[in-house]
Amino acid sequence: MSYMSDPIADMLARIKNGCVAKLNNVKIPYSRMKGEISRILEEEGYIRSHEVIKDEGVQGTIKIYLKFKSDNKCVISGLKKISKPGLRVYAGKDKIPTVMGGLGIVIISTSKGVLTGSGASEAGVGGEVICSVW
Questions:
Q1: How many Å apart are CA 110 and CA 96, to the nearest integer?
Q2: Kind of pairing between the strands at 113-116 and 90-91
Q3: What is the DSSP letter of 104?
Q4: d(C-alpha 95, C-alpha 111), whole Å
Q5: In 3D, which of 116, 104, 113, 107 has the Cα closest to residue 83?
Q6: What is the CB-side half-sphere exposure of residue 105 using CA atoms within 13 A?
Q7: Per-residue pLDDT at 2
Q8: Is a pLDDT exceeding 80 seen at residue 121?
Q9: For the whole model, what pTM was predicted?
Q10: Other residues' Cβ atoms within 10 Å of the Cβ of residue 76
Q11: 32-43 and 7-20 helices cross at what angle (nearest 10)?
């Protein structure tokens, strides 16, 4: 088994590739962080749903059901990993970035859990900027 240096980037790549290939769903190895990112994507309306399947493999998998518009285009038009293993990106509570003038979301890992940028602002916390979605 190969070692993966950035599992979150792998997750985002799988979602992006699934959108391009117009797949109904994509499977991703489970981790708590990826589960939280999936939850936010679902809450914000970027994916139809997600489910955690615990009995697959050692750690289980997350099945993400992609969402498409009526013109068969994926609801997610872009995903970008911001904080990388070699260069972590942090934002204070007053410096949380916006995505495309508020049309997208930024996902942040905070002391209060994984939140969207607006959720982190409301909670008055900053943290590691994981990715942006639009």
A1: 12
A2: unpaired
A3: S
A4: 16
A5: 107
A6: 20
A7: 55
A8: yes
A9: 0.93
A10: 20
A11: 40
